[in-house]
Amino acid sequence: xxxxxxxxxxxxxxxxxxxxxxxxxxxxxxxxxxxxxxxxxxxxxxxxxxxxxxxxxxxxxxxxxxxxxxxxxxxxxxxxxxxxxxxxxxxxxxxxxxxxxxxxxxxxxxxxxxxxxxxxxxxxxxxxxxxxxxxxxxxxxxxxxxxxxxxxxxxxxxxxxxxxxxxxxxxxxxxxxxxxxxxxxxxxx
Amino acid sequence: xxxxxxxxxxxxxxxxxxxxxxxxxxxxxxxxxxxxxxxxxxxxxxxxxxxxxxxxxxxxxxxxxxxxxxxxxxxxxxxxxxxxxxxxxxxxxxxxxx
Lengths: 189, 98
Description:
Order of helices and strands of chain A: HHHHHHH
Oligomer: heterodimer
Helix content of chain B: 10-25%
Order of helices and strands of chain B: HEEEEEEEE
Number of helices of chain B: 1
Radius of gyration of chain B: 15 Å
Strand content of chain A: under 5%
Largest sheet of chain A: none
Number of helices of chain A: 7
Strand order of the largest sheet of chain B: 2-1-4-6
């Protein structure tokens, strides 16, 4: 239980909380404290794409059936969300706009990927799932504190609200897996 | 005449169809009681695909249901079956067949 919280706290700074923090304490010219709808759309698509890429890498690296299944679900679900996001953006005539939050997400993802590429076996599984716990927690926080509140367009807001339960379920799924992987069982470590 | 009709309806094994909506990563209703011969329909209202898959000795499985697709199962025999979504182990439902 407390291990989850420690992990989430460790993983958080890599992703959206860093971006949120950067937004709250602008280093240079003060950016707007909230995002435009095209920027929100870009963050949503970026966040999904990052988890799809992580899942694709995990599928090739893991030997654990439960981790492989989790990775496959991440690819399927986040791809489905991105299809809807793209369709909505087209319908609304919105061109997703790159922004500091999206860039921070990509930087965090690149760092996480570098770390995961150096790992194999049970160590990889634990690191990947730990990252997924932290990532989904950060995305959930961002949805609640940044993305949903700052979105003006009702349809985009609804899409984000519709996606929220899936992110919450992914987080719980990742936490369950993390507990299983941490249990001193068959890993031999 | 009316009495006979009522009796006929009461005794005929008119099987019903029950609908379970999958939305917000949950089965609605999560617990359902049906009679043998009834049909249960699971309709996926979520963006992400789901299944309704029996656990234990029961073998029924809707397979992957993408958004707005429906899976069906006709209750075969009495008993209590717990089911879940194979993609999302946090989702649980209970089907009681009488």
